């Protein structure tokens, strides 16, 4: 298909030159398997994130009250801050970054968590100051997904996938070691 025609079919400002046609799966007849993660609304997560982003949803004023305790807060964040770095424009955020420990995503034992709250920032704006403050207040952890080739960030969906599949791997391992298959 010529690029000009692809531009007609795409709602992107700059079309990447790749297009696919897919059948929408029948979600009504979908049965979750025994190894399914207990995510809140996993089928609609992408839609929820896009809608919140488009509407500039801001519910940080009451977020602490909506978080069930005990909860563990994790921020998917590859931001590196050093004393010689000018990576962060906002010094307040930089101060919070220094107070929140950074661990590799596979270095956390997720099986001991009762409630996991995973914060993933937008690809353009990154993690909000409110998210860092929340994590600092509730003893959160920044999760790092190690990257190569001077790449400094992952696509939001990819970061979510890497971390959530690690959580699933650990929970399945725990289930199998307890004799539950």
UniProtKB/TrEMBL annotation:
Pfam family, one: SpoU_methylase
SUPFAM superfamilies referenced in this protein's UniProt entry, alphabetically: alpha/beta knot
InterPro entries assigned to the protein according to its UniProt record, in alphabetical order: Alpha/beta_knot_MTases, rRNA_Methyltransferase, SpoU_MeTrfase, tRNA_m1G_MTases_N
Keywords from the named record: Methyltransferase, Transferase
Top-level taxon of the source organism: Eukaryota
Domain tRNA/rRNA methyltransferase SpoU type: 40-164
This protein's name: tRNA/rRNA methyltransferase SpoU type domain-containing protein
Species whose genome carries this gene: Molorchus minor
């Amino acid at each position: 298909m010529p690029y000009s025609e692809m531009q007609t079919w795409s709602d992107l400002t700059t079309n990447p030159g790749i297009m696919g046609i897919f059948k929408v799966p029948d979600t009504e007849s979908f049965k979750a398997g025994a190894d399914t993660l207990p995510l809140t609304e996993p089928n609609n997560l992408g839609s929820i994130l896009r809608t919140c982003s488009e509407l500039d949803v801001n519910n940080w004023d009451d977020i602490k009250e909506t978080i069930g305790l005990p909860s563990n807060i994790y921020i998917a964040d590859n931001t590196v801050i050093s004393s010689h770095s000018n990576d962060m424009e906002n010094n307040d955020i930089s101060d919070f970054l220094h107070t929140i420990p950074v661990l590799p995503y596979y270095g956390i034992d997720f099986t001991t968590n009762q409630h996991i709250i995973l914060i993933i920032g937008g690809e353009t704006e990154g993690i909000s100051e409110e998210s860092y403050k929340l994590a600092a207040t509730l003893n959160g952890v920044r999760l790092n997904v190690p990257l190569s080739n001077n790449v400094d960030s992952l696509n939001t969906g990819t970061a979510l996938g890497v971390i959530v599949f690690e959580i699933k791997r650990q929970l399945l391992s725990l289930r199998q070691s307890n004799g539950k298959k």
